[in-house]
Amino acid sequence: MNYFIEKEGNKKGRIIVVSAPSGAGKTTLCRHLLKKIPQIAYSISHTTRQPRKNEIEGKDYYFISTKEFEEKINQNFWVEWAKVHTNYYGTSKKHLERQTHQGLNVLLEIDIKGAKQIKNLFPDAVTIFIMAPSLDVLEKRLRQRETDTDEIINMRLENAKAEIEQKDFYDYIIVNDGLDLACERICEIVKESL
């Protein structure tokens, strides 16, 4: 049931979805986008993974337990959700509807499964896939983070191969082989879409 009624004359906000394999630069590009285009609100996802250093509760993610996340699955709380690398990630349905019905353009930084769920529910959503120029570069970036074990890095690289195979689902693909150029490109795409 939709609890939010669009006021007459209000333009409904657009949804912008950004996905990428771990280490491709998605978070950096999304932060840049939010600084450069003030008409975009960031949709804060929920996750069951542990916070990384410098991540802030309620700003980067809402960190919740696996039990709580699974209860919310049963309550139909999520507009999209997925289990990625042993952790759950999800977007609150009510929060997203509230933002778009208020005319806000909303940026979702989510995985491919979530992107497909969003595109199914919101066909006019703009989808952008970020990728590193090669798997070698991706591996180097993952190792430089110094946040994961070799086992997790190898798992992320295997998942990256599968994610890259699905890149053609997206409206736009950006190869992040230079941060300044990638930032410029994502801003162009979003400005043209709003």
Task: Provide a descriptive summary of the structure in words.
This protein has seven helices and nine strands. 41% of the residues lie in helices and 21% in strands. By secondary structure, the protein is α/β, with parallel strands linked by helices. The relative contact order is 0.22. It has a single domain (15-193), classed as 3-Layer(aba) Sandwich (Rossmann fold), CATH 3.40.50.300. The chain is globular. It has a five-stranded parallel β-sheet, with helices on both faces. The protein has a four-stranded mixed β-sheet with strand order 4-3-6-5.
In short:
With 194 residues, this protein is an alpha/beta fold.
Fold topology:
Blueprint: E1 15-19, H1 26-36, E2 40-42, E3 46-47, E4 62-63, H2 66-74, E5 78-84, E6 87-92, H3 93-101, E7 105-109, H4 112-121, E8 126-131, H5 135-145, H6 150-164, E9 172-175, H7 179-193
Parallel strand pairs: 1-7, 1-8, 2-7, 3-4, 8-9
Antiparallel strand pairs: 3-6, 5-6
Helix pairs in contact: 1-7, 5-6
CATH domain class: Alpha Beta
Number of strand segments: 9
Amino-to-carboxy terminus distance: 27 Å
Into which percentage range does the β-strand content fall?
A: 15-25%
| Main sheet makeup | 5 strands, parallel
Q: What percent of the residues sit in helical stretches (DSSP H or I)?
A: 40-55%
CATH architecture: 3-Layer(aba) Sandwich
- How many DSSP helices? 7
Nearest-angstrom radius of gyration?
A: 17 Å
Mean pLDDT: 90
Number of domains: 1
In order across it, which strands form the biggest sheet?
A: 2-7-1-8-9
CATH H-level homologous superfamily name: P-loop containing nucleotide triphosphate hydrolases
Uncertain segments of ≥5 residues (pLDDT<50)? Answer: 1-8
CATH fold-level topology: Rossmann fold
In quaternary terms, these chains amount to: single chain
- The shape, in one word, is globular
Structural class: alpha/beta
Order of helices and strands: EHEEEHEEHEHEHHEH
